[in-house]
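Q: Got a minute? One more chain.
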Amino acid sequence: MRRGFTLLEVIVALAVFALAAVVLGAAYVNVLGAYETVARGNQTDEDVRFARAQLLAEPDHDKAETGSDFTSLSGRQVKWHATITSTSTADLFTVTFVCDLGGAAGIDPQTVTENFTVMRPTWSDPTENSKLKQDAQDRIATLQGKTTSNK
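A: Always. Here it is, folded:
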């Protein structure tokens, strides 16, 4: 008696193998696509982080609001600017940071907006700053039950 596979069994085995190969191939392509998406996101985060660092390193208030631009490692043109608003606390500012990331090969343009509070003594107007400090001293004296004679 001859032992072996029938033609039908061979065709079914090849079909199962082909189906498994297609499923594994599609999964591999999805994994590669996910890696590419994460890499693009990391590059965007890195560009925004660098632009934010430029803002925070700028000692001049007007230059910080005007912003700057640079070309990132991925070839994107990055432009940033900020709206800086003083608060009721001396040397403390509310910043609205806008970073425009231009398109590059395979990357869509993006705009990232962040709001944060930062302490920057060099951005303060000396007259306004001394008034805010005096107001804080007056509030502290009032809370402590003391009166100020500087008024």
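A: Residues 86 and 93 are 5 Å apart (CA to CA).
Q: Perfect, thanks.
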